[in-house]
Specification:
Elements lengths: L4 E6 L3 H11 L4 E7 L3 H10 L4 E3 L2 H5 L6 E4 L6 H10 L3 E5 L6 H14 L3 E4 L6 H11 L6 E9 L24 H11 L5 E8 L5 E9 L5 E7 L5 E8 L2 E5 L10 E7 L2 E8 L4 H13 L9 H20 L3 E2 L4
Parallel strand pairs: 1-2, 1-4, 2-3, 4-5, 5-6, 7-10
Antiparallel strand pairs: 7-11, 8-9, 8-15, 9-10, 11-12, 12-13, 13-14
Helix pairs in contact: 1-8, 4-5, 5-9, 7-9
Bound molecules: NADP nicotinamide-adenine-dinucleotide phosphate.
Length: 331
């Protein structure tokens, strides 16, 4: 077994290209193969990105015994099937967010990976930015006191009806796509599921959410407002307010390679501006998971975290459809 974990990617779409760039900086991982439903697309992607092996089917990549870990970059509704098939083939799996479209599916995926003795992690890329760890440390240190409010947003215009984001059969909708970020961020900060949620969404021609907002109530006394949309101008922001101060993240989700600044405000005055390095978060995510595969520590984004997030997303989706608030079991 080589020291670097040998990886394969399922899918040749947008995020697969970004992840390929991420592999270039990895110390613990090497990208060995890509698979597509189309042999031509697999070859073209492998040539463009200098990947040694190209497979004309996902099954064929999973049959390659030299591959230890698989990145699932398929549409949301295909995640469960290909995570489970990867686990059955003995591969560790890093699967794009959200892990699936329901808590029932996520639970089944976790159990499938546990029973095969392989690791599973949801690719919550933003969590691997140094600024997020820095903000969590600030909060733990008590810098802004007890958390009371989180306001977070991710909107980005998408109008192409053929894009998986606007296709119901592919698990489209801004809630599980962009809304994943502000909602999972609030859940991460709370360290638990909300006790109740209220959702509001507008649906497009294909009956997926094109804009949405969610109010999350946590029984620690924290309330979060999360916004997202495909038919809204770009909006990227997060603000955390405690009893003794406020933290503002002007660029919480994207990995652009610039330095990131985070502000701490106290009593209407800017108290401090912290600057964080912004290395490629995909590189850090893949190296982290590869380290876990090699027995170097535990997962930063655990299956339990993914379960909390999917329970919340599902509840918000239901509330948006019915107009009723939804209570969640503790967890
Ligand atoms: N972490 C992040 O930063 C990030 C960013 C964007 C998206 N994502 C997630 O990554 C996943 C993929 O998003 P994407 O934007 O990369 O999508 P995309 O560009 O549409 O790529 C999806 C790929 O899935 C494969 N596929 C298999 N069956 C398909 C079908 N029936 N219809 C369409 N494609 C199919 C296709 O590859 P072949 O045809 O070659 O097999 C396609 O290239 C989603 O879960 C999304 O939420 C994560």
């Amino acid at each position: 077994m080589s020291t670097r974990v040998r990886w394969g990617i399922l899918g040749t779409g947008m995020v697969a290209g970004w992840l390929r760039q991420g592999f270039r900086g990895c110390q613990k991982a090497e990208l060995w193969a890509v698979a597509s439903r189309s042999p031509d697309r697999a070859r073209a992607f492998a040539e463009k990105h200098q990947i040694p092996a190209a497979h004309g089917s996902y099954e064929s990549l999973l049959a390659d015994s030299s591959i230890e870990a698989v990145l699932v970059t398929l549409p949301n509704t295909l995640h469960r099937e290909w995570v489970e098939r990867s686990a059955q083939a003995g591969k560790h799996v890093l699967c794009e967010k959200p892990l699936a479209m329901s808590a029932r599916d996520v639970q089944a995926m976790i159990e499938a990976c546990r029973s095969q003795g392989v690791h599973l992690m949801e690719a919550a890329m933003y969590r691997f930015q140094p600024q997020i760890e820095g903000v969590l440390q600030l909060i733990r240190s008590g810098r802004i006191g007890q958390l009371r409010h989180v306001q977070a947003a991710f909107s980005w215009p998408f109008r192409d009806a053929a894009n998986i984001r606007l296709r119901k059969d592919m698990g489209g909708g801004c809630l599980f796509d962009l809304g994943y970020y502000p909602i999972s961020f609030a859940v991460l900060l709370a360290g638990r599921r909300p006790a109740a949620v209220m959702g509001s969404a507008c649906y497009g021609d294909s009956d997926v959410e094109e804009s949405a907002a969610a109010l999350l109530h946590f029984d620690s006394g924290l309330a979060a407002l999360a916004e997202c949309g495909f038919r809204i101008d770009v909006k990227i922001h997060a603000e955390i307010t405690g009893e003794e101060g406020r933290i503002i993240l002007p660029d919480p989700w994207t990995a652009r390679g610039n330095k990131k600044q985070v502000q701490v405000w106290k009593a209407r005055k800017l108290d401090e501006t912290l600057e964080f390095e912004d290395p490629n978060a995909y590189t850090r995510e893949i190296d982290h998971f590869s380290g876990v595969v090699r027995g170097q520590g535990g997962l930063l984004w655990t299956p339990e975290e993914s379960l909390r997030v999917i329970h919340t997303l599902e509840a918000v989706a239901r509330s948006s459809r019915t107009g009723e608030s939804v209570a969640l079991k503790p967890g």
